[in-house]
Amino acid sequence: MNSKRIGVLGGGQLGRMLVEAASRLNISITILDSPVDSPAKQIQATSRHIHGDFKDPLKIQELAQNVDILTIEIEHVNVETLETLFSEKRIEIHPHPFTIRIIQDKFLQKTHLSQNEIPVVDFIDISDRDSINIAVKKFGYPLMLKSKTLAYDGRGNHIIKSEDDITKALETLGNFKNPLYAERWSPFVKELAVMVVRSVDGVMKSYPVVETVHKENICHLVIAPAQHDSIILGRAKEIAEKAVLTFKGCGVFGVEMFLMKDGQIYVNEIAPRPHNSGHYTIEACQTSQYENHIRSILNMPIGSTSLKVPAAAMINVLGKSDNLQETLSPCVEALTTSGATIHLYGKRECRKGRKMGHITIVADSISQLYERINPILKMIDENDSSITTTRSNIQPLVGIIMGSDSDLPTLKPCAEILKSFDVPFELSIVSAHRTPMRMVQYAKDAHVRGLKVIIAGAGGAAHLPGMVAALTPLPVIGVPVKGKTLDGVDSLYSIVQMPRGIPVATIAINNSTNAGLLAVRQLGSFIPNYLQKMQEFMERQENEVLTKVEKLDKVGWENY
Amino acid sequence: MNSKRIGVLGGGQLGRMLVEAASRLNISITILDSPVDSPAKQIQATSRHIHGDFKDPLKIQELAQNVDILTIEIEHVNVETLETLFSEKRIEIHPHPFTIRIIQDKFLQKTHLSQNEIPVVDFIDISDRDSINIAVKKFGYPLMLKSKTLAYDGRGNHIIKSEDDITKALETLGNFKNPLYAERWSPFVKELAVMVVRSVDGVMKSYPVVETVHKENICHLVIAPAQHDSIILGRAKEIAEKAVLTFKGCGVFGVEMFLMKDGQIYVNEIAPRPHNSGHYTIEACQTSQYENHIRSILNMPIGSTSLKVPAAAMINVLGKSDNLQETLSPCVEALTTSGATIHLYGKRECRKGRKMGHITIVADSISQLYERINPILKMIDENDSSITTTRSNIQPLVGIIMGSDSDLPTLKPCAEILKSFDVPFELSIVSAHRTPMRMVQYAKDAHVRGLKVIIAGAGGAAHLPGMVAALTPLPVIGVPVKGKTLDGVDSLYSIVQMPRGIPVATIAINNSTNAGLLAVRQLGSFIPNYLQKMQEFMERQENEVLTKVEKLDKVGWENY
Predict the structure, then answer these.
(1) ipTM
(2) Which BP terms from GO are recorded (chains A, B) (predicted)?
(3) Do residues A504 and A495 lie in contact, with contact meaning Cβ atoms separated by under 8 Å?
């Protein structure tokens, strides 16, 4: 396919997965890293790897002499050497050394982004203890104190909650041995990430926006696609792509972002390489971030970045202690989990917090995904607060709305049915005629909030079900409510006779029980648990009648 | 996960993909094969592979001394040595040497299957030229003459169409230097294959039945799942599992079958190892055949064999000549094909007919799959006859049924909507009143066959939707069909006014378009792709009206 030889600075798990992707394309990769058996070297037997530090100029030069293109799997490399090689035009380097230089220094990176009008959290340089006071005056407590360089996976961050914390913070961060800066404390509601890939000739594609959960500043869990409204996700993608455009060079970029309560999105940091939040792409996307990194730096066509499954998650397997067996307990669980794929990195030594592997889980729906990942997450931490059972329980699947509280008696049996089937639902008043804007908002947001079905009850000139159906892509079930005149036929016709293009699933007049049952059936098509409950319900129903048959036979019709 | 070391006899592409799967589980594999850089050795740098023939007893013994379990990636190994090692209980061997011995000799294999009541094509031993005449008398012309041993990838088969061909056939097959047998000529309508995996403790799981297309007796194309009716596919799976049960040992077995015109299924041959027809499982299934082979021989839990995508194909990349660039033209096409993943095997030398790699393509539907694979197939052969675009998906998500063919004009727009949204569906006649038992069968089976929604259209005393709803736990959408009297109100009431307990989602009279759209919405709640398509559909619908607004503004109402 391509005969150019690639040299990679760094031979950890990211390098390993790059090698895996390259091997499938018969592309040769040579690794520069100190351990003779570093994860990436283990699965590439045809190259003569270089055993040495990726900060060592001589070793980098040696690598450059043996390959056609240099790339990195870690940004903390000797960038001066790369700049020299680049300026002497001795070798192609992706990403551009200038990009690596900016990324290495988080303060420089934030300044660069800020100057290019990419939204970032407020930050300020910290040169001495006095400047901390200035930062506090500006941003108040709590204040985030951060190392500018060599900060990753939770190292190099410290929160200052009050003046008493300052000394401790400075000590932890090396008392100005490493340069520091401070950031305004910004409590986000969610962390988002986007992998962006750009080719030599500028073609750019983005992977889906994912949500990430960090624990002690290390990536713990990734959910793809992110469960948030599409406007926010669209903005996240836009910001990520705009941010990547400010950097030179091609390849894959990981953009990590904070989503604030008010919908504001800040770029937290960028990695100019494949990223932990993109591991899931191996099993869940049409082309993985690793293959696309290889393709893009070789100027080959970039593959599709779309999901090929409805939902996916990635769980990091971090060392619990130096006991490997203990650490691998989530993997043992994953062996019996449908849709789970285990990736171990071949690291010889297990240490607390060390990235030993990851597990990708794919599923047909987000709810199935949660069912699959929860037992694995529990093996990591029995009381894992990132576990999504509570969320999927609270998260209603069905929304019941009615035009007026006078419809409640008619809709109550529907709510009771959902409750008896253990379906999470919400119930509210939304009137098409009296609260039209509320109706628009409700219908527009419904699928974003995770609803799967809307049940709308209305009487007379019953517009609510049809209007909601006109505003949402979700299925809407309409319950015609019987009024004082016309026996509910007015309402039935108003709901059922929708024009071509916008359907409403209409059920019998006043029969909201059936609306609930129909909603359960719709869920049951995809959630086996509800399918089974519906079968049991139908059996019970049948048995109730059969019992009456028996009684009738026994007692006779005269005495029944 | 598991510290047992595996030794593999053979280091070709199957071995390579075994190594890939094993590496992800940190399981060590040592390869025995002659080339120092055989495909499997290239991606495993931590083992001290053995360079030698997998038929050489000393080399096999050397391998056995260095590992805990032996397995094979090719069955043409020295089975006597394996039997000795096994009988001396010196090492675990999977599959059982006895199984390998049977499989090696196709005549023995067929005899074994036949004795175990597995359906195979009629066959007869050929010991000399005279016995060919006996075979002709028994089976007539054309007659298949086959080598018993060392026959694979098209080698060792010859068709005898008339007496004149006999000398040529015998010459081609080595004039009795290798033992021969003959088979009745059996023109199949389709070739099917099933990968079956069995663990040490007897747990057995099957991958989906796939259809395979061979060219010059070499696997060319695999389509998963096979596009045929579910009863036939169910039988194929049953026969494959029954056949595997007749063999000792665990691991993955590839079962190739012929489907005849009359629905009869014959087992053609069995491979006691991962198989070309299972390559697609890497990208398309929850756990690949390679990982499951590893897991099963290590007595680890077998992973799910289900598809994780709706449809997949595998195209073999065979050497067109010794020109690698020419051979790789389908891969170049695949680089720009969504859902395509290229696997090259690292073979140094390209030769005509040599397996150089394969391409897997995944898709959201069978029709999308054909769209994606056709341009790739064309790069292999401009006039490839194995391509058809007209086949419909037999794994439908929606079932459309109607009481009578006279309802078809009313239901057609529904089918067209589903087609335009790329929803796999089936359409048939099921009458509540004229085919009540067919209706019961249809409704009872629907969810088992994977349907998610049933759309039922009926007129007059329209019982079909409600009766089907009474028999299935799935959501049923009812389409009232307008008759000659009563304007369809009879049908509407018959469908919508269901009793408490059994709901039917009723839509407007004769408006089957809306039934299709409602089904898409129900799928879209759980399958993001359909949700997005529904949003786009609604936007287009809105824009169409807005265009008319503009036109009306421009032209004025008098001239509109």
Answers:
(1) 0.79
(2) 'de novo' IMP biosynthetic process
(3) yes
